[in-house]
């Protein structure tokens, strides 16, 4: 007796290394990670793009585009098999009109990310200061 | 009247409405550093198959609700999904038409409220999880205390609600939430508290899990829900939904009896969707749950609120979506504003009224549908309009969207009605009707 007819699932699936959203692309949906992990990369015009975050299950990405309408600020790439639930921008704004508490959890996730980014910034500043001190010591 | 540190909340009923209210209460309280205690009374074990673990429901959830739940901190894991649906097939004696999902993200998830139909336990382990069990677990992970006992009485003690169990143990709460549904005796306990509450009007539905086997489900139903527009008196809605090796039969109408069911199973449109020679087994897992058709009166008072089917809900559909809305509104009111009658009136009642008003529009739509059922030409016109919309890639597909949303519960009746009576839909319908009438006259 076969109970399941196949793998039932909602949302979109991505394979390892596949790009989910690309930096500079026009804004679109926001994504909720249902399974797997996602890398967030930023390309600042230097040789290599740099990794800003690795997000896991229940995290949200692409939410900045929901609010400011600008192009994508980063690239999201799947680590292993990833399943995400896209949330349409227009639909989300309609839900916000019906129930403002929908914004609460997105704001919380954004606050968590701001906290992490500030910690990264502080650590970078410290590294720069230490490098400056080293360079100052070795300069004749 | 507010919840403070160490305030106690009691929730009677651990179905989706009760569990989600508990989840949102604890979640919001944590956000504002409020330390509350929450007990949920639910005697059922949702890991059991058949009636003991089931909350009696058709078991379909729209993808938009899955998205709303995920954004609100309740992600639905894959092992809860028994099947996904990406189309609806409308059947009438004038033919049939398939309506594909109107947009990406508009699919339907099929779930079981308990661990599945009676007999599913033969497969070990059971390859799906109960939705109600998952939501109750999530509430417990958030710090809610489950009391797996049946509530015997509810009364007032020192102006606070008090719950007494069969073993004589009693609990007094600062806030009591009723999520008792329509099917148990719990609803009368809340009515007897005399705070102005009158339960909603209800009718009985008929739901059966028909075992076809996975191959037959695939061949007969595919990934589509099948809706039957049959001209049977008192029948309002008839659907067959693929769910793994089962097909869930949902019949809505007035006084569903054996002769009506016999008419349904003998209708040629239905016979085409059944495996050849298939007969209803004697041991079929079936139920006749009460479903909400009219608004309740004042589902709140000082220190008390009702959510889910025993409060305001959606007419004929999307009970879980309505439970989600009310659970959130109830928790938000209690944690952020207060727990007095006036707090609930100001911040919780508008959500109830919104659902109640929308149902009035729903009733108009179902009345319009009942009027056109006896006229084959009108049904043929409807099917033809939908067929042409589906064949035209540039069509805005308003009629298809209206039908899709009616069956899925993805949109309010107001949105559905706006699509259904859009001037372009009416123009297209009248043109199609005139063309079909001319063709008949020429023949």
Q: Which features characterize this protein?
A:
heterodimer, A: 140 residues, alpha+beta, Jelly Rolls, 37% helix, disordered N terminus, B: 443 residues, FAD/NAD(P)-binding domain, D-Amino Acid Oxidase, Chain A, domain 2, 3 domains, 6-stranded mixed sheet, 38% helix, globular
Structure, explained:
The complex is a heterodimer of chains A (140) and B (443). Chain A is built from 3 helices and 6 strands, in the order βββββαβαα. In chain A, strands 1, 2, 3, 4, 5 and 6 form a 6-stranded antiparallel β-sheet that branches. Chain A is globular. Chain A has a domain at 12-99: Jelly Rolls (Sandwich), CATH 2.60.120. Chain A is α+β, with helices and mostly antiparallel strands and 140 residues long. With 443 residues, chain B is an alpha+beta fold. Chain B has 3 domains: 8-59 and 129-201 and 293-360, FAD/NAD(P)-binding domain (3-Layer(bba) Sandwich); 81-126 and 202-291, 2-Layer Sandwich (D-Amino Acid Oxidase, Chain A, domain 2), CATH 3.30.9; 372-442, no CATH class. Chain B contains 14 helices and 21 strands. Chain B has a 7-stranded mixed β-sheet, with helices on both faces. A 6-stranded mixed β-sheet of chain B has the order 8-2-1-12-21-20. In chain B, strands 3-7-4 form a 3-stranded antiparallel β-sheet. In chain B, β20 (300-301) and β21 form a beta hairpin. In chain B, α1 (16-31) runs parallel beside α3. Chain A binds chain B through residues 1-5, 7-10, 32, 34-35, 57-58, 60, 83, 85-88, 91-92, 95, 99, 101-102, 104-106, 108, and chain B through 31, 63-64, 66-68, 70-73, 75-78, 81-84, 103-105, 107, 109-110, 120, 122-123, 126-128, 213-215, 217-218, 242, 244-245, 325, 328, 332.
